[in-house]
Specification:
two-stranded parallel sheet; 1 helix; about 45 residues; alpha+beta; 2 strands; about 30% strand
């Protein structure tokens, strides 16, 4: 199964949303293929 996560933040951005998105992606990746698309700040 494939899952795509859309988020405004993802590490290296810092904050609750970035941390939660990374933890969710890591957990799901143990069971399926995960792609994260994050707008971020262009760093």
């Amino acid at each position: 199964m494939r899952v795509t996560i859309l988020s405004a933040e993802f590490p290296p951005d810092r904050g609750g949303v970035a941390d939660h998105t990374a933890a969710l992606a890591e957990h799901l990746a143990a069971h399926m293929e995960v792609t994260v698309i994050a707008s971020g700040r262009g760093r």
